[in-house]
Specification:
The chain is an alpha/beta fold. The chain folds into two domains: 97 residues, 3-Layer(aba) Sandwich (Rossmann fold); 95 residues, 3-Layer(aba) Sandwich (Rossmann fold), CATH 3.40.50. The chain is built from six helices and nine strands; from the N terminus they run E-H-E-H-E-H-E-H-E-H-E-E-H-E-E. The longest helix has 24 residues. The chain binds 5-O-phosphono-beta-D-ribofuranosylamine. The site of 5-O-phosphono-beta-D-ribofuranosylamine has 15 residues, from helix 1, strand 5 and helix 6. The site of 5-O-phosphono-beta-D-ribofuranosylamine (GRF) has 15 residues, from helix 1, strand 5 and helix 6.
Length: 212
């Protein structure tokens, strides 16, 4: 059975992109650690099973992660997709789901792990920014990269405008990565990933654009 569990904490726009992508799935469940996550309502509107597991009801990270794993395992997922899930997961949890736990991050990793990626990108004056889908390892926002999308940074970009353009790309690459996984097209070799049946186009992205 091809089952997907999506973990969210808030808005859920990446979750929504996954729900609307018509992925080849038999079952989808959404789990949130936050009962007020607006993404939960979006999931319900899509007729998707939702589960709330409030981390504040647990004495420590390990006991929350154990309860979360029980909920996840009941859905027998092929893949677990973190989509704005704002909890750091224990090493034991990450190991349990090794090679089937994916995350979307709003930067071109390994640049800018952690929070506040767009503000930090602007501060650094980088000219090309983007987002990354990767497998989760014990190191935060690190792990084998499945796909990245890059966008040029404009001189008048603000954190908000940059975030919006990166988010558009997140909504494109996350469903793509999950589809590849469900189709068994992702080959993991250490830190390297090969996606069968894909090609790299040779075009470069310049920012600013070249002038003659
Ligand atoms: C996204 O920017 C994602 O890359 C990051 O958290 C944000 C979640 O947004 N991990 P949403 O809840 O999917 O709208």
């Amino acid at each position: 059975m091809k089952s997907l569990v999506i973990l969210i904490s808030g808005r859920g726009s990446n979750m929504q992109a996954l729900l609307e992508a018509k992925l080849p799935l038999d079952r989808i469940a959404v789990i949130s650690n936050n009962a007020h996550a607006s993404g939960l309502e979006i999931a319900r509107q899509h007729g998707i099973e939702t589960i709330v597991l409030d981390h504040r009801a647990f004495p420590d990270r390990q006991s929350f992660d154990t309860a979360l794993a029980e909920k996840i395992d009941a859905c027998q997922p092929k893949l677990i997709a973190l989509a704005g899930f704002m909890r750091i997961l224990s090493d034991r949890f990450v190991q349990r789901y090794q090679d089937r736990l994916m995350n979307i991050h709003p930067s071109l990793l390994p640049a800018f792990p952690g929070l506040g990626t767009h503000a930090r990108a602007l501060q650094e004056g980088i000219k090309i920014h983007g987002c990354t889908v990767h497998f989760v390892t014990a190191q935060l926002d690190h792990g084998p990269i499945v796909i990245q999308a890059a966008i040029p940074v404009a001189p008048d970009d603000t954190e908000e405008t940059l975030a919006a353009r990166v988010l558009d790309q997140e909504h494109r690459i996350y469903p793509q990565a999950v589809r590849w996984f469900m189709e068994d097209r992702i080959r993991l070799n250490g830190n390297q990933i090969e996606v069968t049946g894909t090609s790299v186009n040779g075009a470069a992205l310049y920012s600013p654009g070249l002038t003659e």
